[in-house]
Structures are given as structure tokens and as C-alpha cells.
Design brief:
heterodimer, A: 333 residues, alpha/beta, 9 helices, globular, disordered N terminus, B: 264 residues, mainly alpha
């Protein structure tokens, strides 16, 4: 039951203006030993609007990855329907979908160049080889992987492999981009890059499904939110009035090590950085708090240039987390 | 066709880079050298000894590699998650499976060509043997057909079993195929009719000795029979078609999750 509107969340407002529509999707997994059935999704109905970034949130085991796998055809639903641009989703329409999995799932013994070549030849069948080759070269240079193009995937760092996964998802300019935990395992710079790439795709009016536990990214990137709990849709921002939506979180925390308050103050004045809204100092570790994201980013960049150790850069997600937690109360797994 | 070729090419590359590739070639070469040494020590029938031992080694190496790669092609792709990525692309699952099979066949072809070339080199160094005859080449062609059937068996089991189960089942099926004809031939005259019928029918359906042409070379009086050869080729190709069709049908609706995927 939707806690904000007092109506079942699965009964989303029908809309024709949706790039992807899930209708009464159910999926049950069987325990291999005892043949006990465990429902992963129960009558899930929700939509994803074109050009919007929609967060798919939920606790571990809520059904997020199952939903994604059903959309991608990796799993088959027990019942229900998946419509893409108003028509049942089929193998061909998957050419318009890009997918970045939570962990790197490329063949470990292939090189980034080979992975992208075979991926492009599956997705960009109408383009000629020369065009595809030029596109791959341009994209690999964009993400600074051109020098590593002949290394095997297993020889790349996690960050590099994530960049290959990003290119795999986006190189064919999909209409729908499914990102499963895109920020997982990335360092602060990697996160910033990933965020910039997602924003770039948003500008291209690509519909994005962002499946994540990183609530700061939801605040910054997403227009809509669907929350799952034990395979049920318990909240959808598309169902409620704009005034009912949770306000975006405004706090950002930059946790640095190897500097003192005096050095930070000297940095602020010499680089004309906007002052922080809060500071927690413990030995050589400082937690700087900001209201504005841009200010926090400027500080992050300055700290990196000065060579300070960045421990963490997150949003102050307490409010978002408490908002999310109310839907997880009483979960059984 | 683009999709099929892409998966075939990727599978070929992955298997060629597999650690087994070089040992397989090396093993085949060693067995050929040993067969040649053994044939040199005999007083007569050099070709018979060479082909008996060498073709047996050729057969074993290729079949083991076919079973190993056939089961590994699916299980590795499953465990590293690349199978999930492949089935989420705009190609159908049967195309994905067929691509893996053809990738395996390309690798087996490469191994066969290298080993036969080495075999020919060994024969040329032996003053009694010289250039390979067409009949001798045919022996290798049929053993190679046997490899392709074995590869289809491995892919068939891998399409619905775990790696260990598929590996064990494929080896068992291969061994049954090698022995079924001998078992049927060894039945005692007083064997009950029903038992005889069942054993003989099984041997007729599942007989990998049809790909062993050494019997023609062992006896110089026997010549390769065109019609029999043709039927054996049809038998092999039919088995491949049947096994791959069944594998594709099973694979179409199969649920498989990567070992890396722990979330639901």
C-alpha cells in the first residue's frame, strides 16, 4: 500500500507516454533442494517515462535485479507483460536497450577492443565496419582506455573494466539505459566521471533506470523513484503529487585526511573557495559539510590537487535513508 | 548471420586463448612421434602400426578437447556472466548456443589441421611411407567428424547441466558410443531375443565406431566402401543436427544466473 496516497502502489497510473511498461509482472524462484517457492516479484506494474532517469530502489533481495533481468530477457516472468514503446518486448527491441551490470560481466580473456567490436556488430548492424571502428576508437579515447585496448579484461583495474562496461552499455546510443549499481567499487573520481556520463546521456533524452543503494546519486540524477519491498512496488513518485515527493537532499560531505583546519582555511582564501557549512575535525581527518553540490565538487577538486587523501565524498543521505527505510520496515528476508 | 558469426568469432578467440589449446597440440604431436617410433621398431606393416596408434591418439586428444571445451564454453560464460550479457543482446538464445558450437568446431578444425600437417611431415621423413593417400586422409576426416559429434554431445549436456555433470555425462556418452558396437558383437548366441534387440538397436543408434576407419587400413584386402562411408557421414551429421536442435530447444527457456549474481 502506498503510504502517501493510501492506494496500492502496484496500480500505477496508466500512461501511453512510457518507453517501458511493466504490467503485473510476477516471478517465483524455486529452492533447488527443497523445491520451496520464493516469490521474487508479485504483480509488479510500473512505467518508465522517456527522457527521465528513474531510480529503482529497495533492500537487498527486494526484486530490483530480478526486474532488470526480466526486462533483459535473462529470466522469464511467470506471468505479466513487458511493453517497450507500447509493444511486447522482443529480441529485436533489445537493440535499443543498453545494460551495465553491477559487476563486470565481460569475457575475461577478450580485450576491450574485441568486446566493443563484437558488441557493436550485434547492436549496430546497419553501420559499416569502418564507421564502427572509428566510433570505438573515439569512445575508447574518450574514456582514456585507448592505450589499454589490447590488454585482456582480466588484466584491467576495476575502474577500467567499469569503463568498458559503460561503453558496452552506451556505445550503440540506446533509448533505454539500465544501470545496475553503476557507482559500485568506484573511487571518488570514478564516481564523478560516471555521474558526468549519466548526465550526458540524460541530456540526450535517454530514459535511464538507475538501480542503486547510493542515495546521493538518486538525489542528484533521478526524476522519478520506484521503491520495491519483498517483490512489491511500495512507492512510486509517478503516483503522487509533486508536493508529496520527498525534497531533494541538500547536504554533501567531503571526508579528507592529511590536512588541518588551518590549511583548509588557507586553501579557501587562496583559491577563493566558498566556505564550508560545517566542519568536524579529528586529528588529521576532516569532514567538511556543504549545502551546494558545486561547492563540494570544487573543494573535492582542490583537495585532490593538493594531494590530500580523499576518504569519502557522499551526500548527507540521512533524510533520504529515513525516507527509504520507512518502506523497508517489516521486511521478512 | 552477423550475430551467429560474432558469437562464433568470440568463442573461437576464447577457446584459442584457453590454457588447454597448447597442451592439446603438444599432446597430439607427442603421440604422433611415439606412434612413428613404434612403427619404426616393427619388422613390417609400418603404416598399420602408425595408424593404429597414431589415429587412436588423434581420436583421444580431439574428443577430450571437444568434451572439455564444449562443457567449459557454457559454464565459463555462465560463471563470468558473459552469457547473461550475450542473451541480453538482440540475438536469440539458439544463435548464442550455435555460435559457441561453431566456435568450438573452428578450434577443433585448427587442431586437426595442425596435427594432420605434422603427421604428414612425420610420414615424409619415413622412407617407407611418403605422401598420405586419400584413404589415409579419409581416416582423419572421419575421426574429425567424430570430434564434431562429441562436441555436440558436450554442448547438449552443458545446455542444461552444471559443468561437472555435463563433463561426466559427456564422457560417459562418449565411452558408451565407443563400446556399444563391440558389446553388441560380443553377445553370446543364447542371449534372449529381446535383450539382443535392445543392445543391437542401442548400438545402431549410438555407435561412435562408425567414425573409425582404421579397420579398412588394418586389412589391406578391404577397400573403403563409398556407400558405407556416405551413410556414416549422414549418421554423424544427423546426430549433430539432432543434438544441437535439442540443445537449442532446452536453452531457449533455460534460466541461468551468473555465479557473480547474488542479488535478486
Amino acid at each position: 500500500m502506498d503510504k502517501m496516497t493510501n492506494r496500492p502502489a502496484s496500480e500505477s497510473t496508466p500512461s501511453n507516454n512510457r518507453v517501458l511498461q511493466l504490467k503485473n509482472l510476477s516471478k517465483t524462484f524455486k529452492n533447488e533442494v527443497f523445491k520451496k517457492k520464493r516469490p521474487a516479484l508479485t504483480n509488479l506494474s510500473c512505467g518508465f517515462e522517456p527522457g527521465k532517469c528513474t531510480a529503482l530502489l529497495g533492500h537487498n533481495g527486494a526484486g530490483k535485479t530480478t526486474t532488470i533481468r526480466l526486462i533483459l530477457g535473462i529470466l522469464f516472468p511467470d506471468s505479466g507483460e513487458i511493453l517497450f514503446e507500447g509493444k511486447p518486448l522482443n529480441t529485436r527491441s533489445r537493440a535499443k536497450i543498453g545494460y551495465m551490470p553491477e559487476v563486470n560481466k565481460q569475457a575475461h580473456n577478450l580485450t576491450p577492443l574485441e568486446v566493443l567490436k563484437s558488441h557493436s556488430s550485434l547492436f549496430l548492424r546497419k553501420q559499416n565496419k569502418k564507421e564502427i571502428q572509428q566510433l570505438i576508437e573515439r569512445k575508447l579515447k574518450e574514456v582514456k582506455l585507448w592505450e589499454h585496448r589490447h590488454k585482456k579484461i582480466k588484466q584491467l583495474s576495476k575502474g577500467m573494466a567499469r569503463r568498458v562496461a559503460w561503453l558496452q552499455a552506451s556505445i550503440h546510443q540506446p533509448e533505454l539505459l539500465i544501470l545496475d549499481e553503476p557507482f559500485s567499487g568506484l573511487d571518488p573520481l570514478g564516481r564523478q566521471e560516471m555521474q558526468a556520463w549519466i548526465e550526458q546521456e540524460k541530456k540526450r533524452h535517454v530514459s535511464i533506470i538507475l538501480c542503486t543503494h547510493e542515495l546521493w546519486s538518486v538525489n542528484i540524477l533521478c526524476d522519478d523513484i520506484h521503491i520495491l519491498n519483498n517483490g512489491n512496488l511500495v512507492y512510486s513518485s509517478q503516483d503522487v503529487e509533486v508536493t508529496d515527493r520527498p525534497e531533494p537532499d541538500s547536504g554533501y560531505i567531503l571526508h579528507v585526511s592529511g590536512t588541518s583546519q588551518e590549511t583548509l582555511q588557507e586553501m579557501a582564501s587562496s583559491l577563493s573557495l566558498k566556505p564550508w557549512q560545517g566542519l568536524e575535525q579529528e586529528g588529521w581527518s576532516s569532514k567538511l559539510m556543504f549545502d551546494e553540490y558545486q561547492d563540494a565538487c570544487q573543494w573535492l577538486s582542490a583537495c585532490i590537487k593538493r594531494g590530500f587523501l580523499i576518504i569519502n565524498f557522499t551526500s548527507d543521505g540521512k533524510r533520504s535513508e529515513s525516507f527509504l527505510l520507512q518502506f523497508f520496515e517489516g521486511r521478512t528476508n | 548471420m552477423t550475430g551467429l558469426w560474432t558469437v562464433t568469432k568470440d568463442s573461437f578467440l576464447l577457446m584459442r586463448r584457453d590454457k588447454v589449446f597448447i597442451p592439446a597440440i603438444f599432446g597430439g604431436i607427442i603421440l604422433t612421434i611415439l606412434a612413428n617410433i613404434a612403427s619404426d621398431w616393427t619388422l613390417e606393416e609400418y603404416a598399420k602400426v602408425l595408424f593404429d596408434l597414431g589415429a587412436f591418439g588423434f581420436h583421444i586428444i580431439g574428443s577430450i578437447v571437444a568434451i572439455f571445451w564444449g562443457t567449459k564454453a557454457i559454464s565459463d560464460a555462465r560463471s563470468e556472466g558473459s552469457l547473461e550479457m550475450q542473451v541480453s543482446t538482440p540475438i536469440s538464445r539458439p544463435v548464442c548456443l550455435l555460435g559457441k558450437y561453431f566456435g568450438l568446431i573452428l578450434n577443433l578444425t585448427l587442431i586437426a589441421v595442425i596435427l594432420v600437417a605434422f603427421w604428414q611431415a612425420v610420414m615424409l621423413t619415413n622412407s617407407y611411407l611418403g605422401k598420405m593417400t586419400n584413404d589415409q586422409l579419409m581416416v582423419f576426416l572421419y575421426v574429425y567428424l567424430g570430434w564434431c559429434v562429441t562436441a555436440a554431445v558436450a554442448i547438449f549436456f552443458a545446455s542444461f547441466c552444471s559443468h561437472a555433470t555435463a563433463l561426466f555425462s559427456s564422457f560417459s556418452a562418449w565411452l558408451v558410443g565407443l563400446t556399444s558396437a563391440q558389446i553388441a558383437a560380443a553377445l553370446a548366441p543364447d542371449t534372449p531375443k529381446l535383450t539382443r534387440t535392445v543392445v543391437e538397436a542401442s548400438a545402431w543408434i549410438w555407435d561412435f565406431q562408425r567414425f573409425n576407419l582404421n579397420k579398412y587400413l588394418v586389412s589391406y584386402a578391404t577397400k573403403l566402401q563409398g556407400v558405407e562411408l556416405m551413410w556414416n557421414a549422414v549418421y554423424g551429421l544427423s546426430l549433430i543436427a539432432l543434438l544441437m536442435t535439442a540443445a537449442c530447444l532446452i536453452f531457449r527457456k533455460r534460466t541461468f544466473l551468473s555465479k557473480l549474481s547474488i542479488n535478486t
